[in-house]
Amino acid sequence: MNLTQIRSLIAVAEAGSFTAAATNVGVTQSGMSQALAMLEESLGVKLLVRHRHGVELTAFGERALDHARTALAHLDAIGREAAEAAGEQVGSVRIAAFPSVFSSVLPPLLRRFRSLYPGIELIALETDDREVEAWLEAGSIDLGVVLNPRSDSDAVVIGQDAWVAVLPTGHRLGRREATSLADLAAEPFVLATGGCHVHARTLAEADGLSLADVRMEVRDWTSAIALVREGVGVSVVPESTLPENRRGLRTARLDPPLCRRFGLLASPKRPLGRAASKMIGLARGLRV
After folding, report:
1. DSSP string, 207-231
2. N or C: which end of the chain has fewer CB within 10 A?
């Protein structure tokens, strides 16, 4: 049994035909067919059943496939560790975050990482903040950016964002440099969530308040700001989401001030590889 035979078995199982498998691997169809025929001969058992529409694995072939994938994974690991021992930067990192992080604090970190470690594959996934936590707990990702990490967690804080009031031009509260959440909660309100479980409604509830008159509820911060501009109501949004063109808008600080914090956290269910460790080390250098 050799590496060509192992790769051929996996390729055929995934593609469902010799033609597609040979194309994916970059060998001739006859060469792949011969490699698998020799593997079956050496094992003394059928691995594949050929039919008019393609190829299927036998029951033993399915079991052999599991072993083949495990063997290939170990061989790839040997290659990666050998490359690392020789001073090469290899591997991959799966990192997830919610939308507003991808539009603010995360891009500089990712650009710096790619610049320093071009040989490491970086897989960035965007979802909501609850899903990030679920993926971390399930071990589906290496790293995730969590919202407002607990002080006793291992999260590396990579940024923070102040909550600000957004009001239409001419609104009476817009004459102040700062306004309270209680005053805003009593006004006609445009609620945006930004794909996060922490937003104006939960901030108000944490302060023993409720939004008395929610005129519109949207997911996107930009949509909420546009509705405020049209005079639909007031809103509370992260400062980083404010547009450069603020015509038709007034902004004010919250009194007392509130902010949200972003923490880079490793999955507790996934071994921390060298590539992910490098990302965390780089994040510590950017810590605010």
Report:
1. TT---SEEEEEES-HHHHHHHHHTT
2. C
